[in-house]
Amino acid sequence: MRIKTLTVLLALIKHSMLAELEFRINAVTNAFNTIIGLLLALYFLDAMFAEIGSLGGWNFYKVLALFGVAMVLEGLLEAWLFPCLHALSEQVRTGDLDYLLVRPIDSQFLVSCSKISLWELPRVIIGLIMVVISMYNEGALNPQNLVAFVGLMTTGIAIFYSIFLITCTLSIWFVKIGDIWIFSYALMEISRFPVVAFPLPLRPFLTYLLPVYFVSNVPVSAAMGLIQWQEIITSIFFAVIFLCISRAFWLFALRSYSSASS
Predict the structure, then answer these.
(1) CB-CB contact of 5 with 109 (8 Å)
(2) Cα-flanking dihedrals φ and ψ of residue 116, to 5°?
(3) What is the DSSP letter of 178?
């Protein structure tokens, strides 16, 4: 990351922090809601595993780690992607996107990092704690597995970001398509479960077309020390491909954008 871009990013984060400090009660509220969601998830998993021994060959703690990864994705969605990218439709409608495009810095970067909702981050922290607890109970808590998890969680987030960017970029053509981001929420919900638990005909779709497998399943496998080199290479490949596709789609969309002020 260039120094100029890093400086702008730090400035945007500082601005977001100052704005969020006006609503400190939101931090407590979001933390409380997250804990309630966690307790409900634990109750659901406990009830489910009381009836079945495993889910697609995954035991309780592996599925708990999946729920943790999904909570991390949900936290990032609410703290970062939704505040920034969901506003794109309104920016296109009002012409505010014009002001971002004329600034001397990459437009995709500005659109993607214009606002951070810090009070949504408790979901990310609690999700990570769930993964660590699962690793401990599976006897997989060691530096090697932690590094592998963080690395492949990063590739999963890159894929998730790319999909969200692509869906929100459609608003450049279809301003009234604001609810298409629900697609990304559906992806996040599906990521709570192992792909092998779905019917066999759906597995290739959830692996390669809607890559739930690489977004959530692979990071959990890495956390449990069950990852293969082939999966690591494929995850990196998919992350790079999705980032390139989303970048190309963004640039293509800008060529079709007509300024609201023109």
Answers:
(1) yes
(2) -125, 125
(3) G
Q: What letter does residue 172 receive in the DSSP assignment? A: G
The residues, ordered by sequence, that sit 6+ positions from 5 with a Cβ below 8 Å of its Cβ are 105, 106, 109
Three-state helix/strand/coil letters over 21-63: HHHCHHHHHHHHHHHHHHHHHHHHHHHHHHHCCCECCECHHHH
Read off the pLDDT of residues 184-225 as tens digits, 9 standing for 90 and up.
777 778 888 999 999 999 999 999 888 999 999 999 999 999
pTM higher than the cut 0.85? yes
Distance CA 39, CA 124 (A): 15
Residue 189's CB: how many other CB atoms inside 10 A?
A: 13
Q: What is the DSSP letter of 141?
A: -
Q: What is the sign of the dihedral through the CA atoms of 15, 18, 22 and 28?
A: positive
Per-residue burial over 222-238, b = 16 or more CB atoms within 10 Å of its CB, e = otherwise: bbbbebeeebbebbbeb
Closest Cα partner for 55 from 162, 156, 197, 171? 197
What residue ranges in 111-199 does DSSP mark as E strands?
none
**What number of other Cβ atoms are within 10 A of residue 252's Cβ?**
11
Q: Look at the chain and count its residues.
A: 262
The Cα–Cα gap between 225 and 216 comes to: 15
CA angle 117, 122, 127 (to 5 degrees): 125
- Name the one residue in this structure whose structure tokens are 């490949």: 237
